[in-house]
Design a protein that fits this description.
The chain has 146 residues and is an alpha+beta fold. It has 2 domains: 1-30; 33-141, Immunoglobulin-like, CATH 2.60.40.4400. 36% of the residues lie in helices and 28% in strands. It has helices at 2-29, 60-72, 130-141; strands at 38-44, 51-57, 76-77, 88-93, 99-108, 115-119, 124-127. The protein has a 7-stranded antiparallel sheet. A hairpin with a 4-residue loop joins strand 6 (115-119) and strand 7. Helix 2 runs antiparallel to helix 3. The radius of gyration is 20 Å and the shape is globular.
Length: 146
């Protein structure tokens, strides 16, 4: 009888450890480490599927704020097929102007109150709430969401 109780307690304990370990790995997979010293932001040329340099951000404080926001995201694993190309796209560069990490595609919602990001190469997607949308959009573009 004691052996059965001990076995049940041990089995329950090991199951809990495995469950917690599995959840923590899932969480790590849905967060991305962001590196780079500069952010290169490109804006879509209206009515074309072409982009031009909009802004190069190298103010370390603002670059770090963008990194912090991106690293806090719990990305959704999804393949996104939007009706139109992204309004903006951006990537990080290191001090030698080499691209570091991923290219982020940014859409502004039809109501112009939220933004959505996609990392196509990783099938990662997120739609921000209004507050985070406004903050990130302001940092990246210097503009307010309308």
């Amino acid at each position: 009888m004691k052996t059965n109780k001990s076995f049940i307690i041990l089995f329950t304990f090991l199951s809990l450890i495995l469950l917690l370990t599995g959840c923590s790995k899932l969480n790590k997979k849905n967060h991305i480490k962001v590196d780079g010293d500069n952010i290169i932001i490109e804006q879509r040329i209206e009515e074309k599927d072409e982009y031009e340099l909009f802004k190069e951000m190298n103010e370390s404080e603002n670059v770090q704020k963008v990194k912090d926001i991106l690293e806090e995201i719990t990305w959704v694993h999804a393949t996104v097929d939007m009706a139109y190309p992204p309004h903006y796209r951006f990537h990080f560069e290191n001090s030698t102007k080499e691209t570091v990490g991923f290219r982020y595609d940014l859409w502004i919602s039809p109501n112009r109150d939220k933004i959505e990001l996609n990392i196509d190469s990783e099938d990662k997607y997120i739609q921000f709430d209004e507050e985070k949308s406004s903050e990130l959009f302001q940092l990246l573009t210097g503009k307010e969401l309308e």
